[in-house]
Predict the structure.
Amino acid sequence: MSEPSPKDPAPAEDADSEPRPGRVRKPIGWSTIIIAVLVAVSAGLVWRRDGADGVLDILTHDLSLFSGILPRVLAGCLLGAFISEILPHEKVSRSLGPKSGLMGLLIGTAFGAILPGGPFTAYPVASALLAVGADFGATIAMVVSWTLIGYGRAVAWEIPIMGTDFTLWRIVISLPLPVLAGALGRFVYVRLYPKPLAKDDEN
């Protein structure tokens, strides 16, 4: 058996094929610590004012609220997991990836505008898009569009309360904002996480 010649180095991997630098999610971060401290301080103030009965009453109501929200959180997380497995990574990366340009931002904006459901649907879907190749810019455009233009809230709440004219003008004025936010997010992300150079470029 012939051994590979040392003069023929292994081909360098394309820089585009390397995974995006991701942020490792820690089970306990600064946000968790801050929230825990605020909860402890608030519980102490309630206990001082209302005693143990006041604290237990709040805990009972919170457990009831948590039991009602938990199925939605579970469904949203499952939806995000299934979407990340179903969507073709190459097509998502081509349509919403770093090289998708303005079209990727427009697709993200349109998808966010028609995305139904509340935050238990939107954020797991956004996380799934990031996992299958969408870049920060397109995902930011989707989330901002869902927040500002989402038809669900406009039809269910805004039109009946504020009227059609107000809703239409508010949507028209909000249309460029998701694209601008996505472009800014893409600009900042490229500078925070510069693309690693291929080995051929380093030589």
